[in-house]
Each structure stands twice: as structure tokens, then as C-alpha cells.
Here is the input.
Amino acid sequence: MFAILSDAIDSVADLWKAPKEGKVIGTSTAGSSKAIMLGGLAAGKDHFHPNIVFGSNARVALEKFARYWDVDVRLVPVNA
Here is the structure.
């Protein structure tokens, strides 16, 4: 199981052009809400006033992430 997870993490690292000389760390989740939370945390909060931009049609987990970790939401209206 760990070999499959390691291969998946390496594949995503290659897609995102991670440096070959660095160590890539990753995880798996059982659902997209947890993945959004972990992805947001992995992006870091090193800035004075972090924000996240997403469409009004995006998953509610993005709003939850912003609320839980005090990140400003920049909501883009989306029409049908």
C-alpha cells in the first residue's frame, strides 16, 4: 500500500515540477473536504493577510477552510 501511495505522490510532484533534488512529502485523504483543508495548510500562511480566490460555484469546503484558518475569501460571481 505504501508503495502505491509513494508512487502517486511522486507522480503529482512531477506534474507540479517539484525539484528533483528535494524531498517530496505527501498524504492521501478519504474525502475532498479533508484534501482541501490539507492542501490549504500546505500552501502555507506565511503572508500577513492571506486570501483565497474561488468561484461562487466552488465547494463549501473552501469557505470552511478560510473560516477555520482566518484566510480572507475573494469570491468570484459565477452565472449560469
About this structure: The first strand starts at residue 51 and ends at 55. Strands lie at 51-55, 72-76.
